[in-house]
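=== RUN LOG ===
request id: a7f3
mode: sequence -> structure
chains: 1
length: 251
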Amino acid sequence: MVPVHIIIPARYASTRFPGKPLVQIAGKSMIQRVAEQAARTVGSDQVFVATDDHRIREHASGFARVVMTGDHASGTDRCAEAARLSGCSEGIVVNVQGDEPFIRPQQIQSLIQAFSDPSVNIASLMKPMHDPLFIHDSNMVKVVCRHNGDALYFSRQAIPAVRGSDPSVWGQEASFFKHIGVYAFRVQTLQELAALPTGLLEQAEALEQLRWLEQGYSIRMVETDFQSPAVDRPEDLAHVENFLKSHPELA
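=== RESULT ===
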């Protein structure tokens, strides 16, 4: 059986929400909720919190294995260092963002299952979109795919564009998918990605996965019908509290 490791990159100095991993959500920190959801997939022994902050290290050591890393520009780079330091030399690494406190174990498992295809080296999640407000929201990253599910391109713009049609009805005339930024990698591929130089497409859209496509890597997209609220800013906590009210089993 191929070993699976889940790494949760967590940094304290978030520009929009300093200390975000330690914020309390109904009696538990956000990073603890992420780790507990991950552990339901692979067991707590294979869940690592990767951080460069001693406050997160001290807190997370009570419920996960903690790896102290250097300062990194992206969660992928932090995961790559954490994988090296923790001795993850083979198998699959799943990068679960530290602001996804209600990610479902089934979603993580679906990414792991994608690697039953030996051609898959990177996998990620996507969710169908229909609301025109979301389709044209530049904060929502969209993805278009090949017939086999491999990503063709990611963009902050609405892709595909429906020529000759009013943008307000594009969701009725084409398929749109939102990218959910949870990734899984073969260990060797993860290390290769961390060594790549910044790409032109990445600079244009501020999306690191475009660096990988530009360098010829394939990303297998796995469709999901569920997305829980992520926490990017302090005001997002109100959405999380409302989400918990409608999902009391997660509280």
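=== NOTES ===
The chain has ten helices and eleven strands.
Residues 30-42 form the longest helix (13 residues).
=== END ===
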